[in-house]
Amino acid sequence: MDRERDLVCFSHLRWDFVFQRPNHLMARAARDRRVFYVEEAVDDVEPTLEMKRADGVTIVVPHLPPPLEGLERIAVLRELISDFFATQAIAQPVIWYYTPMSFAWSSHLPAAAVVYDVMDDLGSFRFAPPDLVHLEKVLLARSDIVLTGGRQLYESRRARHANVHLYPSSVDGEHFRTARTDLPEPLDQAPIARPRLGYFGVIDERVDLKLLKQIAERRRDWQIVLVGPVTKIDSADIPQLPNVHALGRKEYRELPAYLRGWDVAIMPFALNDATRHISPTKTPEYLAGGRPVASTPIADVVDPYGRMGLVDIGSGAAGFERAIELALGRDVAELRRRADRFLATNSWDRTWREIDELIERVARRVPAEVQRRRIAVPVAPDAGSTFAADAGGTSTRAFEA
């Protein structure tokens, strides 16, 4: 991409929540250009934009009075982002979307290229706004490039756009390989007995808490360690058992130390609408950390990881218990050799370079041609209700992944 061209990303995820796909890609983009990461609005007295810096990226947070609803809310957000473009001298940037909801108030912005990065099927998530499906259709029509974070997402979008590309979850191998070194044991994990079955990530409706309870009750000798924030569910729903340990949210830099202390890394995902299209980033992260992995049969884990014998797969309480037993019996040295061969070309650096080249090919087009392809966003009839419900900033928590 032209290093003089800015990148403006609209996301449903807070930058400092969980370090995941948007963070990895935007931080790499910011190494040689200006990158602005626009989050969802928060409540405040007056409409304004807050700016802060992290990982080389400028995070932009709209502040809005809670009474603003519907089309009035959209209008104020449009004005804020237009003023921001003017004061920052942003012209013909690459505009990148993680959420179609932002498109309702940013569709008027000039762009050299529009990228829609589908990292989750947000419409299937709990508390998804009713306008999301409609706005995604419009965003797909407006986008020059559509990226997908997994095979299932790719299959569900490739018939809906002429320029769809599959970029599954990559890995910061250098970071997670430190889990194979002599890191100090985290103080809150040190007292927990072995064997330990560990999970890191968001704990929401995608995690099968009933399954975890069944495993904990069937195998009292196993200790289940959960590392991550709880969203969209009641924390009291986490099994309250002596061998289940919920340690809360940790910083990205801390994860290898926790991973190092696990005998098996687990992915106890439920099989529901919210998980049908997921491609868990933690799969290559667990493997880069050198841990055996057990998972429920999520499609993007079964193929390629299960098919290649890198992850043990099991369904239901008995099946998942058996998968964990197989993982516990793994030859770890051999698993690491095979995983390392598979992960050798799977890095966020490489993924960003390839995406960067895709964008540059689009952005080289004559601006007039690009502008002729732009369309206005038709706002759905019930848009007012969506943005009224979103006025308190609740949709951010509804979509954190």
The CATH superfamily name of the largest domain is Glycogen Phosphorylase B
Any guess at the CATH architecture of the largest domain?
A: 3-Layer(aba) Sandwich
Question: Which regions have little confidence, pLDDT < 50, spanning 5+ residues?
Answer: 368-401
Structural class from helices and strands?
A: alpha/beta
Q: What percentage of residues falls in helices of 4 or more residues?
A: 25-40%
Task: Spell the H/E element sequence.
Answer: EHEEEEHEEHEHEHEHEEHEHEHEHHHHHH
Strand content: 15-25%
Helix run count? 15
* Overall tally of structural domains: 2
Describe the protein in words.
There is one protein chain. By secondary structure, the protein is an alpha/beta fold. It has two domains: 216 residues, Rossmann fold, CATH 3.40.50.2000; 171 residues, Rossmann fold, CATH 3.40.50.2000. Helix content is 35%, strand content 16%. Strands 1, 2, 3, 4, 5, 6, 7, 8 and 9 form a nine-stranded mixed beta sheet that branches. Strands 12-11-10-13-14-15 form a six-stranded parallel beta sheet, with helices on both faces. The C terminus is likely disordered.
Structure in a nutshell:
By secondary structure, the protein is α/β, with parallel strands linked by helices. The protein contains 15 helices and 15 strands. It has helices at residues 21-29, 70-87, 132-142, 151-157, 173-176, 209-218, 255-260, 282-288, 299-306, 316-328, 332-343, 348-363, 367-372, 383-389, 394-399, and strands at residues 7-10, 35-38, 42-43, 48-54, 57-64, 94-97, 113-118, 145-148, 164-166, 196-200, 223-227, 244-248, 264-267, 293-295, 312-313.
